Amino acid sequence: MKKAYLLGLVGLTLAMAGCNDMLDVTPRDKFTNDPSFWNNATQVENYTNSMYGNFSGYGYQGTGGSFYFSTLTDDQVYREFENWTFTSVPQSSSSWNSPFTEIRRSNYLLEGMTSSTLADDVKAKYMAIARLNRAYNYYLLVKRYGDVQWQDHVVLSTDDEYVSGTRTDRDVVMDKVLEDLNYAIANIGNGNKVSWSKDLALAMKSEICLFEGTYCKYRTQADNGKAADANRAQTYLSECVSASQQIMGGGYSLTENYGEIYNALSLTGNSEVIFCRHYEKDVLGHSTVDYTSGSTAQSGISKDAIDAFLFTDGKPLATTGLDTDDAPELIDGKYNLDKMLSVRDKRLGVLIDHTLAFKGHGNARGDLAEMTSSTAYTIAKYYTDKMGDPSATSQIYYCNNIGTGYTDAPIYWLAQIYLNFAEAKAELGNITQSDLDNSVNKLQQRAGLPGLTLNPEADPANNHGVSSLIWEIRRARRCELMTDGNRYWDLVRWHQLDKLDTSKYPNIVRGANLAAVPDCEVVLDNGYAVPWTAQRTFDKKYYFYPIPTNQIKNSHDGTTQNPGW
Fold it and tell me: Angle at Cα 461 formed by Cα 459 and Cα 464, nearest 5°?
C-alpha cells in the first residue's frame, strides 16, 4: 500500500506544479538534466512515477476528474446551459498544451536512456514507460485536434520544425502511437494495479485501437477531412481484439455486483481492476463523492439515458411488455422510484438514488447535506458510507467537503475490455455467440438481463444507422460505463456527435417525470424536468477542437486552423 500511496502522491503533486506550455525548457518535476540523473535508477523511477498524474481518476482536491464531470453528453445535464467545449478559438488551451508537456517529459526520458549506464533491461523498461505515456498523450491530442505535430525528441525552441512546421497527418501519428504501445507491451514488465505493467499497456491498446478502428470506419471526408478507410479500420479493430483477448485470459474476473469498483476505499485487491488511481485518507483526496452528495445541485441523469436501460425482459422501452411508467410514487413525502427500477437493468438502480431530489423536494443520504439535481435524478454510484469513522460528523466531513474523499478510482478494468472486445468483433463482422457469451453477456448477466444473441430484436430507437447487434453492444457500453467519461468520445468515433443537438433530441436535456408534482418549482417540458431551455446546435466543425491562436502565431505559417473555425 505504501507504493500505491507514493505513486499517487508524487503524480498528483507534480501535476499541480510548473507550466502548461509545451515549450517550457524545464519539465514540471524540475529535474537536473545531466548524465548522472539518468544513471541513477532511484531518480529515474521517481521521474516515471510523476507520469502517474496523466490519469486523473477522481481528480485532486477540488478539481474534477474523468468521472461524473464530463457533462457534455446525452447522459448527464449540467444545471446551467452547456454549449460545446469551444464555441470560439481560444488564445491558448490546456487541452493542447498539457499533452505536449507530457510528451516532452517522455522524450526527455527516452533521450536520457540513450546515454544511461543502467542495465539494458532496466533502460528498456523505462523507455517502455516513456513510450506508453507518449502514446497516451498523443491519443488525447488526435482525438481532440486531428492532425498534430509528431515529436520524437525534446523540443526546446519555437523554431524547431516539429513546432513551427505543418501538423503531422493524424493517421501517421496514430501508427506511431501503436508502435509505442507495442514497444511498451514487449518491455514494460509485470506490475501491480497501481504501477506500470504489461496489462496496463494492453488495456490501453485495447481502448486506443477500438477508437482508431471505429473512427476510421465511420469518418467522412465532409465532416472529418478524410474518407472512411476499411482496411485501416480492420487493422486496428483486429489489434483491439488481440489486446483484449490477452487481458481476458489474464486471470481477471468480474466483481459480484456492478458498482463495487466505484466506491471502494481500496481497489488494489479487486479482481476486476487492471489499473487504478489510489487516494489516501487525510493525505491525498478528491471531491467526486462531495460533488455527488453535497448541497450544490448535481448534473443529473437525462431522460434519454434512463430510456436507454433495458427492461428485465431484455427488451427496450419501445417493445417491452413490462410497465413503462416512469412516474415516481409519493411515499412518506418522498418521490420514490422503486417501482420503475424494479423492472429495469440493475445498473440503473446503482447509478441513481431511488428517491428523486429537486427544488422544493431535496433528499439527503442519512445525515449528509440535502441534495438536488438538475434533472431530479441524483447520481449514487460513487457514494460510500465507509469513509471516516462511524460518527455522523466524521461521515459528513469526508463526504461533504472539498478534497476529503479517498475512494480509489478505477482507470482500466475488465468490464471495459469485454465491451471493447465485443464491439471490435461485431464491427469486424466475425463475432460469434461464444464471443458474446465470453464478454458482454457476462455484464448482461450481472445486470439481471438476458444475454445478447447474434440477431437481437430491432429497436425503433436505433438512430445510428447500424445493425441491431451493434446498436445493442453500444447500448451495453453506454449503460455499463455511464458517467465514466467515455460517452462524448464514443459519439465522436461512431460519427454520431450530432446526437448532442438539443433542438433535435430534446430528451437529452429532460429529466424525471414530475408532471404529478403539485406546485412544482421546477421548469417542466411535457411533464419532464428541464434545467435550461436554450438550444445547443450541432455543426460538423465540432468534430475537432480549434487550434489555439498562439500555436498558429508561433508556427511561422506552418500550422493551419481546423476546418470551420
Answer: 100
Q: Give me the pLDDT at residue 353, please.
A: 98
Residue 148 three-state SS: strand
Identity of the residue numbered 529 = A
Q: Give the Cα separation of 246 and 248 in Å (integer).
A: 5
Residue 187's alpha-carbon distances to 39, 135, 246, in angstroms, are 19, 15, 16
User: 311 forms bridges with which residues in the sheet?
Assistant: 344
Segment holding 125, helix H or strand E: helix 120-145
Bridge partners for 300 per DSSP:
77
Q: Tens digits of per-residue pLDDT, 189-231?
A: 999 999 999 999 999 999 999 999 999 999 999 999 999 999 9
3-state secondary structure 89-115: CCCCCHHHHHHHHHHHHHHHHHHHHHH
Is residue 213 within 8 A of residue 243, CB to CB? The reply is no
Would you say 454 and 437 are in contact if contact means Cβ atoms under 8 Å apart?
A: no
What are the pLDDT digits (tens) for 100-154? 999 999 999 999 999 999 999 999 999 999 999 999 999 999 999 999 999 999 9
Is it the case that residue 6 has pLDDT exceeding 90?
no
Q: What is the pTM of this model?
A: 0.94
45-65 average pLDDT score: 93
Q: In a 3-state reduction of DSSP, which class is residue 309?
A: coil
Is residue 377 helix, strand or coil? coil
Q: Which of 99, 119, 98, 123 shows the shortest CA–CA distance to 109?
A: 123
Mean of all residue pLDDT scores within the chain: 92
CA distance linking residue 102 with residue 334, whole number of Å:
49
Exposure on the CB side of residue 447, measured as CA atoms within 13 A: 30
CA–CA distance, 146 with 137 (Å, rounded to integer):
13
What is the distance between the alpha carbons of residues 455 and 496, in angstroms, rounded to a whole number?
23
- Kindly tell me the burial class for residue 533, based on how many C-beta atoms sit within 10 Å of its own C-beta (0-12, 13-18, 19 or more): exposed
286, 61 contact by CB (below 8 A): yes
Q: Quickly count: other Cβ atoms within 10 Å of residue 18's Cβ.
A: 14
> Could you tell me the sign of the dihedral formed by the alpha carbons of 116, 122, 128, 130, in that order?
negative
Residue holding cell 429532460? Answer: 510
Closest C-alpha to 144, from 436, 542, 472, 524:
542
Task: Record the cell numbers describing residue 290, joined without a space.
Answer: 462531495
241/174 Cα distance (integer angstroms):
17
Sequence-separated (6 or more) residues with CB below 8 Å from residue 166: 149, 558, 559, 560
Query: How far, in Å, are 206, 207, 399, 486 from residue 413 at the CA level?
Result: 11, 11, 25, 14
- Checking if the pLDDT of 70 tops 60, the result is yes
Could you tell me the three cell numbers for 564?
470551420
Residue 352 has pLDDT above 80, yes or no: yes
